[in-house]
Amino acid sequence: MVDKIIVAVCGRPELYDSTNYYYRDKYRKDIAWRGVSEDTGVAEDVCRKKWKGLRDTYLRERRKELETRRSGAAAGPGKKWRFSAVLSFLDPFVTLRPTTSNMGPVEETAEDLPTPAQEETEKTNRNDTEDRSPPPETPAASSVSESQVPGPSSSAAASTPIGVYMS
Q1: Residue 87 needs a FRET pair 20 to 30 A away by CA distance; which of 74, 134, 137, 139 works?
Q2: How many domains does the chain have?
Q3: Residue 62 pLDDT > 80, yes or no?
Q4: Does any domain span residue 124?
């Protein structure tokens, strides 16, 4: 049944080729699906669902194959899906979208990582510099006088009752 559906869909590019003139024509696609149903002897809605599942599985398997090839993993190629070769006619019409990640690229290699002795030295150096840092300046020791501070003068603030705002 599945082989018949694949062969029947392959002969009707308006069902899979997005560059085809009739790809967006719902009426023509309905006629094509009726033809697939007649060729296979299976109900039209079953053919549509089966094709969608086959297409999605093929794209998932293809993406997985590209990922394992790109990642440089030591594992050999896994077992191929049994319909991969038959559905390869979809390759020119399908572009895999790039995946995105919220993680930035990792640039560190094993040579870049510090050894435990280097980490201990850096930790000791950090503790030494923290102990020698000057104390933070307090507001009382600040060189800004009251006349340089923006805002209402202290006399205006003292004469304004609480809860009343100046305009």
Answers
A1: 74
A2: 1
A3: yes
A4: no
